[in-house]
Structures are given as structure tokens and as C-alpha cells.
Amino acid sequence: MFTGASQFAFVGVIGAGGSAWAGAATAALLGTRNALYSLRLSSLLDLRSWRLPVTAQFVIDETTAMTIAREKPADSRLAYWATAIALFSLWNLGTLIGALATQALPDPKALGLDAAPPAAFLALLAPRLRAREPLAVALAAGLIALVALPFVPTGVPLLLVAVIVVLYGAWPR
Amino acid sequence: MIWAALLVASAACYALKLAGLSLPQRILEGPRVQRIIPLLPVALLAALVATQTFATGRHLVLDVRAAALAVAAVAVLLRAPFLLVVVAGAATAALLRLVL
Fold this sequence. Notes:
The structure holds 2 protein chains of 2 kinds. By secondary structure, chain A is mostly helical. Chain A is built from 9 helices and no strands.
């Protein structure tokens, strides 16, 4: 699973006591945006034969942003692969260091590590809030999740929010 | 079970990317799909921020994480890089726990 928000969400749901499957569903739902990114990229990248399945693994926010910002197809491909290789290796190296380091920690809460995920989610969310509609959707989603939380199993508020936003987006207008 | 769920989630995330690269464009170009897909991460990330800040398990709580989120929000507004936002949030919670 090479897509950061989905990784954080999967761990976050399980860490809060939710079921692994609620975590998996949330991670997959967060990954849907990569399908739109892939759609944008499909005309810019070389996807013949074996390149297609290899290329697919590295479609994320950052590689998409770097690729579509180029003017020539050759530059786009270079940008895609340079970003993909740099991010994939450093991200996984960082994950490994984090996994080894936290095992050596006596009390993660004393370091405020339970406050790190919400800060990370906020940092991922903020660039998507530059218009009025997403801002309203974000506020409503946070509120709905908190109102539902005491009444349903952990992790389910997120899925409820996902269903509501799909209904809202599909509403004829 | 966690590993099975992880494998399924990973396969789903990969399949979504592969689908976008290989499916005919018109399938994902409907106006509703185009509206829903950008709003999904907004709603899910906002719900994650809310539940990871103001809840422990299935109980609503107000603790140092709320202050940590406020500091992280200021860092975001000041256009701080991702890592700094996360560190600012964690450091706030750690310091408040030390003091309170």
C-alpha cells in the first residue's frame, strides 16, 4: 500500500480500537483519488506492456503533481520516475526507522505521539480546503463522525461519513 | 486478521491506480464521479482529524490533543512543511502533559 493517507488511516482506525476491516475499507476509500490521478496520467506516461503494472504502484499525490506540471512528455516521464523513486525509497526507509525506534520507546504518549496522527491528517487535508464547498464538507464530516462515534463500533463513523459524502455528491442538482 | 485486512487494502489501493491507468477514460469521467472522488478524501481526513483528537475509543474526550491540533492548525496556516506540522502537534501534547 504505497499511498500515505491510506496507510495512516489504516493504522489510525486499528490503533483507536476499530476492526482491521473498517481500517481496510477506510484505506481503500482514501485511495479512490489515485484512480482519478491515474486517469490524468495515462496520456502522459509510457504504459506499454510491463510498464503499466509497474507504473501503477507509484501513482500518488506527489508524483501526479510533479508529472502534470511539465510541458513536454519526456519531462513528465522523468518527473514521474524521479519523484517515484525518491519518495518510495525515503518513505519506506522512514517507516522502517520509525518502526524500529518506537519499539525502543517506553511511553509513546509522553512524547505526544498520539497527537501526531491528527496533525498529519490536518496537514494532508488543508491543501484540499481552498474552496467553500470542501471546507463545509470537512466541517460537516468531522461533526457527523463525532456525533456517531459513541453509538457505533470504532472505525464505523468514518465509513458512515464516506456513505454520506457519496450520497451528497451523487445528489442531482 | 490484521495482515489479511492489510493485504486486501493494499490490493484495493493498487487496483484503483491500475484501473485509472488502463480503463477507458469515459468510465471515470461522469460528472458525479468527478464530484464525489475529490470530496471523499476531504470528508474522510476531516473525520479522522475529529475522531483522533476528540475521542478515545468510543468516548468523546477533551484533552491535550485539542491544544495540539490547534497548534498544528496554526502551523498549517503559516504554511509550515508537513513534518514540522506533525512535530509541532506532538511536541505541544508532550509539553502540556509534562506541565499539567
